[in-house]
Amino acid sequence: MGYRVYVKLKKENKEFGMYPLCITTMEKELISGDGLNQGDIVQIDEAVQMYDSDTDYTLAIELANSGEAIGVFELHKDLIISKTNQKEVMAGQVYKDKATLKEVMKNYAIAQRFQFRVDRSNAVSYALICISEDCDWRFKASSINKSELFKVREFNDNHTCSLKDKVYEQRQASSSLISGIIRTKLTNHKRKYTPRDIIDDVKSDLGVDVSYMLAWRVKEKAMNFLRGEPADSYKKLPGYLYTMDKTYPGSHIRMEKSSKNEFMYVYISLYVFIRGFDHCRPIVVVDGSHLKSYYTGTFVSASTLDGAGHILPLAYGVIDSENDAAWTWFFEQFKIAYGVRENMCIVSDRNESIIKSVSRVYPDLPHCACIWHLWNNVYKKFKKSHAKLSEIYFSMAKAYTQTEFDSLMEKVEKVDIRVKEYLELAGYEKWARLYAPVNRGWTMTSNIAKSINAALVSASNRKEATQTYKTLEKKYQEMLELNETMCTRMTVVPSTEYLHTVNDGGRNYTVCLLERKCVCGRFQIDELPCPHAWAVLKSKFLMPEEYCSSYYKPSTIVMTYDVPVYPLPDKNDWNIPEHVAEEVVLPPK
Question: Are 223 and 186 in contact, with CB atoms under 8 Å apart?
Answer without folding.
Answer: yes
